[in-house]
């Protein structure tokens, strides 16, 4: 596997995971059928992908002298525009609901305060009359983006180039904490509300750390053909679709099954499965960042029209509609804006040197399996 700087199957799996979360929320928030009862666990797969991809794309560059500021600006340019757009859309919906149905909404002042924090990708930490202890009422999935930005920055500042034993200890500690939180709450659907904040930290810590460990071990994996790629996709969807609602099953999926699926996908190397997989990978982030507020708007419009309640299979039409919206936002908003921000801010960020690395000489890396490897952006 040494020398592979692109894992095309990972793009496809990122897209499938985003679709899984979308279909899960159509079932839980959009009035549609619950086709993927464990679809929320795809978020844990996102964290694992993030750990692997960050190590692949940035670890050697950070060790070779990329400043922490340069890394942080790159990650914010990548993640913030769509996250903030989702918060704007969801926040606008919450303000409209506060006027249209004030008894089923938080007070307008609290709505505006929460919207402001969510726009900055910061959590609301008070109890709301309608939103309860939800940290990101403007756009629920922002909780995971908040944690991902945090773990990315912690990794870049403290963990790059550290020993595999230290990373493994971090993963083991996160796994223990995840088991404790899961058993306490009776579910791994954690991290989106204030009371389960520690559970969210455990989810991202284990997932991101598992991705880092897999990156260290990638050289020991056998090179596999397209069948391994197909198996990885099918098995992931199978685990997310099984109608088993039990914390023991959720723990088994997150701690064992999803890391094994990611290892299988990495072993497939540049293999691809889906004809539209590359496009699906490009759409994964806009789908994830925008789908909940758009679902909320669709549900609100349906209620205003007086449509019948209950499970509506027609809600699944939201899938192609949201994919089309994600493509439009990606092409006409996200990619042009990121290009402009990169031209404006990256030269300044790259002018800084990390205080902990005054020289350009890299620290020795403990990646014995994969060896030193230069990676492309």
User: Mean pLDDT, rounded to whole units?
Assistant: 89
**Cα end-to-end separation:** 18 Å
Largest sheet: none
How many discrete structural domains?
Answer: 1
Assembly annotation: single chain
Total strand segments: 0
Counted by DSSP, the helix tally is 11
Large-scale geometry: globular
Q: In terms of structural class, how would the helical and strand content be classed?
A: mainly alpha
Helix content: 55-70%
Write down the Rg: 21 Å
Low-confidence stretches: 1-5, 354-377
List the SSEs and their pairings.
Layout: H1 8-28, H2 42-63, H3 68-100, H4 108-119, H5 142-159, H6 164-185, H7 197-217, H8 226-241, H9 247-267, H10 277-304, H11 318-349
Task: Report on this structure.
This protein has 377 residues and is mainly alpha-helical. The protein has one domain. The protein is 65% helix and 0% strand. It has eleven helices and no strands. Helix 10 crosses helix 11. Mean pLDDT is 89; it is low at 1-5 and 354-377.
């Amino acid at each position: 596997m040494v020398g592979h700087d692109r894992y095309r199957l990972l793009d496809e799996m990122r897209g499938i995971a985003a679709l899984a979360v979308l279909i899960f929320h159509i079932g839980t928030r959009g009035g549609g059928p619950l086709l993927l009862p464990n679809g929320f666990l795809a978020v844990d797969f996102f964290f694992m992908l993030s750990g692997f991809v960050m190590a692949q794309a940035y670890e050697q560059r950070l060790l070779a002298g990329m400043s922490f500021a340069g890394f942080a600006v790159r990650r914010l340019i990548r993640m913030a525009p769509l996250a903030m757009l989702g918060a704007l859309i969801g926040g606008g919906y919450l303000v409209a609901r506060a006027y249209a149905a004030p008894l089923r909404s938080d007070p307008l002042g609290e709505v505006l305060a929460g919207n402001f924090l969510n726009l900055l990708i910061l959590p609301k930490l008070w109890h709301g009359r309608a939103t309860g202890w939800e940290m990101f009422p403007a756009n629920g999935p922002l909780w995971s983006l908040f944690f991902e930005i945090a773990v990315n920055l912690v990794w870049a500042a403290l963990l790059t180039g550290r020993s595999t034993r230290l990373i493994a200890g971090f993963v083991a500690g996160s796994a223990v904490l995840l088991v404790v939180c899961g058993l306490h709450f009776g579910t791994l659907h954690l991290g989106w509300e204030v009371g389960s904040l520690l559970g969210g930290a455990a989810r991202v810590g284990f997932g991101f750390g598992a991705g880092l460990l897999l990156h260290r071990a990638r050289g020991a994996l056998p090179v596999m053909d397209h069948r391994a790629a197909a198996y990885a996709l099918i098995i992931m969807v199978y685990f997310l679709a099984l109608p088993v609602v039990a914390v023991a099953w959720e723990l088994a999926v997150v701690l064992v099954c999803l890391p094994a699926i990611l290892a299988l996908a990495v072993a497939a190397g540049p293999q691809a499965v889906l004809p539209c997989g590359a496009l699906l990978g490009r759409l994964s982030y806009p789908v994830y960042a925008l789908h909940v507020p758009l679902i909320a708007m669709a549900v609100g419009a349906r209620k205003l029209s007086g449509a019948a309640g209950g499970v509506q299979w027609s809600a699944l039409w939201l899938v192609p509609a949201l994919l089309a919206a994600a493509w439009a936002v990606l092409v006409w908003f996200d990619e042009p804006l990121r290009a402009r921000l990169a031209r404006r801010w990256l030269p300044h960020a790259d002018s800084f040197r990390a205080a902990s690395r005054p020289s350009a000489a890299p620290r020795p890396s403990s990646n014995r399996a994969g060896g030193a490897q230069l990676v492309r952006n």
